[in-house]
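Lab channel / #folding
Pinned by the channel admin:
"Please post every new chain as: sequence first, then the structure tokens as a reply. Keep commentary short and put observations after the output so the thread stays searchable."

First post following the new format, from NK:
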Amino acid sequence: MIRPTRPSTLAAIVCTCLLADPAGSQDWDPFGSEDVSEPEITAEFSGLLYGRWNSDLKNDLNGEQTQEFRGKANLHLSLDHPDYGRMVVSALGAYDAFPGQDRNPARFKPELWEAYWTLERTNWELSAGQMIRRWGRGVPSLWDNLNPGDFSEFLFTEDEFVKLPVPMARWTRYGDSYELELIAIPFYRGARMPGNNSDWAFISVNDLSGAEDFPFVEQAVDQDLSPGLVTDPADNFVNGDFGIRFAPAVKGFDLDLHILLAHEDLPLPAFTPDFVTFLQAEQARGISPLDTLRSLALQEIATFSPIFVQKPQRQLSVGGSIAVPLPSVVARFELAALSQQRLYSAGMEVVRAPAIQTLVGVDALSGERFLYTLSFIGSAFLTDSDLFLVDRFNVSASGLARARPWDVDLWIEVRTLWNINLGDAWIGPALIYDFANGLQLQAGVNILAGPGSAPLSQFDDNDFAWARARYVF
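Reply from TO:
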């Protein structure tokens, strides 16, 4: 039996498609008659520029980054062809500078951002490439988890860049009474975390005594390398993530049903037994594990290295989201059941437990003078273990309110996050002025506070004021 080669197979597929498409066959003119005009390609170029200056409100930590400049440029090119679809390519350049920080020099990082192709037809759409795809009916959403997050600046990455693009393919079918979307993400990409030199690192080295005796460890700290072993799944389809979204047409509200089999974007570091013993000994002395992790000495890193092993685990998520338009607001409800959630026990060992998450939110985002969004997220962990930092049932709240009290384009904004169980919180008031030419000026402060044992309170020394310019063209 003669097996066709790949080129011959591809040719057979193309010929079959042409023969099966009478409209396409009629459009083809082998003699190039003058009556046939080539479809035109339309191009659109746009961009987004950011420049932000951060200044700490207090300087009480050795080696703290008290002044920062962070700039971003996102350039976007879109090419549209009526027959062959749309091609989108964008690039991101980030420039960070830290005046007065010898161990944290300025750096410029260019990267490909989104690059994908989309083909749209009457009742279906196909996209493939590196892209950002959001699920869910609002912000925040339990189902906005297809793309990993950028936490390199903790909670303070600009809205446009909080999600990182990843390679994926998506096919959407538009029926008369439903919408069906299939997602495949072939390669694992984790969240972007702060380096060991960052003020926002959960595991950081503050005491560099004896660094000259450990050149390799010092180099790892300088280069923001991990003090543990990080293993990501191999790049193959067996380790890919897969999702289904089904949206039936229901009168009176929008309903999405979701199934997602995916790896954790924020895998929990499993501390090695010797380091767990060290953390427990520090706990017995009255020192919280969070305090220990944020004030490690170089000698401790060298003694226990590697201090953790980190490997993403797969979890199955099933649930849905509902949005109900009301006279002046949109009410949202979301539910997600997770096959497993990894947590720390009271003894800093990793435990696995099924989890149920719910979200209740309300949005009023169309007002000319006042708009807001408020969400409550509840999590229930089905385990009998005593847990570290979380209870078996937890509730947090997040919100954004923006008001324009005067007849000018000046907005007063407040963003907030509150962990009701632990009592820690972030609040970020700001002023925003919009110019008619696409320029926007912003200024504000970010305050983190709470009990000493809570995560956000670990960063209360990093409260900062900021000023930012944003330009869209």
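NK: The chain has six helices and 23 strands.
TO: also worth noting, Confidence is low (pLDDT under 50) at residues 1-33.
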